[in-house]
Amino acid sequence: MAPLPPPEPARLLETEASLAVRKLRFERNRLVLPMGVEGTYGMVRHPGASLAVPILDDGRVVVLRQYRFAVAARLLEFPAGTLEEGEEPLPSMQRELGEEAGYSAARWDSLGVMVPCPGYSDERIHLFLARELTPLAEQPAGDEDEDLDVLLLEPQELDHALASGAEQLDGKSVTAWFRARQLLGL
Questions:
Q1: Fewest C-beta atoms under 10 Å: which of 22, 40, 140, 143?
Q2: Residue 141: its pLDDT value, please?
Q3: Any catalytic annotation for residue 138?
Q4: pTM of the model
């Protein structure tokens, strides 16, 4: 496969409106796209995120069942988190793995970067495979607004949940699981 061409940024004419909420910012911009089309486009600016696929020594996968208000449902997801200002992806994920799942990992492999919603957001999620896990002494607390349960699933159970629709998985977790399986030869 040929390498990706360099990005072709649009030319910003003006930012017509901007609204910041927590770590996100919504912008309405007048742009000239690389092909010459001029228009007004909405965009969510995101600081980026990290996600880990944690695998125990016995092969089970650490997964979270987390409530997501935007879809009013509990989804299966891998531990993940938004990057803090100035924070690098791996230290962010190491922190989040402890806070959300209650583990630390001695081995980290990159699974690359994914762009989940390029039609309206600049978010990039850095994906990792976390192995050689050690449970932390303290149970995970998560953030105040996080409602989650830590599950330990056999890879086949996670595959079944994904294939059957018995559980809803978010897109970043599906992509990360696919990449992890490729790296692990599953």
A1: 22
A2: 60
A3: no
A4: 0.86
